[in-house]
Amino acid sequence: MSTAQEHDTLLSDGLLTPQDVAVYRQLLERSPDADEAAERLGIPPERCAESIDRLTARRLLSPDGPYCHEALSPGLAALALTASAHVQVHELMRRIDSTRRELGPLGALYEGHLRRELEGTGTELLTDGEAVRHRLAELSAQVRHSVLTVHPTLGSPETLRAARELDRDLLARGVRYRTVLPHTARRQREALQHMKLLAGHGARVRTAAVVPGRLILLDEDTAVVPTGTGGAAVLRDPTVVTFLTVIFDHIWEHARPVEPGGSGGEDNEVFEDVEVAILRHLARGRSDDFIARKLGISTRTMRRYLAALCEKLDVETRFQLGMAAERLGLLEEPGEADRDG
């Protein structure tokens, strides 16, 4: 039997038992006589013989005359039992090394190809507001088919005027333009005027109670998103852009249109949406500052909404407001009532 087969047989036989170790110790330190070892240990001779068989199989004992066994070195026994395994390991390491040396040079070829494949789908980082504005102007000039934007807040009147110049140029070139802003923009004079002017030039403008973040999609192959450090990232990976387009479509479907000749600021249904959004945020324990940021309004304006809600629902505290909203079913997300039914 080869040493590899011996090793496998030993593994199937299990580990040495405390009795095996005790028998080995007796034969090593006291006497090589098996019967004497059994007597000293107080075990039947047949059980002692079983231990001797296991120790002999592991090359820890060698027969030395009738009923006598010589204890051998465990280190030499381990070396003898694993000799063929060491040879196999050495052969496997040689094959591994040979395979790596054979295929290694192809790695650089593959990585270079991968980089070239990704060149048109990478991420371009813009570090500050000025770089973002400059790059957006360049990208706008290259747009051919469509622009989709989501803006949780609008800038200063000067910023709005500059943006309108870019937007007017896009619309004049026949670019399809859709944008979503927060409902609260309808009560900001400059913002409302901006939305009406865009709609008047042919853009489709809508507002939503909650606008989760800023997003710009150009020609359905480029996305611009904020980085959170005052800059932005220009994304071209098709999977990412497609996913962001799905998000835009979801926001668009739940938004309300702004008409060029409409009053905008007098749409009661729109502002009921804002109030419901505030109530849902309050129910989740969000702070006034958090809610104001999400709705694109100042904290002071948010608190005016809060006071109006308390008056409308005839309550005095935020807790009572939440209870009243729950009682009236105002905290249900869209579609929840249908699902419950």
Hey, roughly how much beta strand do the residues contain?
Answer: 5-15%
Q: Provide the CATH top-level class of the largest domain.
A: Alpha Beta
Output the CATH homologous superfamily of the largest domain: Endonuclease Chain A
Number of strands: 10
Helix proportion: 55-70%
The value of Rg in angstroms is: 39 Å
Average of the residue pLDDT scores: 82
Given the helix and strand composition, which structural class is it? Answer: alpha+beta
Contiguous helical run count: 14
Based on the structure given, which CATH architecture of the largest domain is correct?
A: 2-Layer Sandwich
CATH overall fold name of the largest domain: Endonuclease, Chain A
N- to C-terminal separation? 75 Å
The largest sheet, given as strand count, sense and whether it forms a barrel, is: 8 strands, mixed
Order the strands across the largest sheet as they lie in space: 3-9-8-7-4-5-6-10
**Contiguous runs where pLDDT drops below 50 for at least 5 residues:** 335-341
The overall number of domains is 3
Shape: elongated
Helix and strand element order? HHHHEEHEHEHEHEEEEHEHHHHH
